[in-house]
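Archive record
______________

***
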Amino acid sequence: MGRKLKHSWQVSLLLITFLGLTHVEAWGADWRFCTQSKDGTIYYYDATRITRVSNGVLKFWGKTILSPEAVKKFVKIDPKFEDLHHIISLIEMNCTERKRRSLWIILYDKKGAAIENEYITGNESNWEMILPESAQEDLLDALCE
């Protein structure tokens, strides 16, 4: 009896750990709508996890719900993205210099399972200019008020 109880406890712990790792995006997030691109892709940011890294630099989690047209672009790169639905990214944004960089990108399918997970080592060369009249500029304007 003790062995069976110990085994079910271990299985339960493993299941809880797995669910926590695969569905971390939902816990504690307060996704706020920011903008929608011309192709229908929708951009959100998590209002509960915005931190000031230094003067003028913010770090936050963003969520992008991809339009069918955007998904087609990913499928051209690799067919494994056929069921791609959304992307969660950890982003640093330099409000003063109007630049951004992604630090961590997780791609999810329609069922909410992670397809790909990439941690990007931050260095100065990863910074990209934010283009005028882009969804990224809308994020900059919303977060860097």
Summary: Residues 28-143 form a domain with the Lipocalin fold (CATH 2.40.128.710).
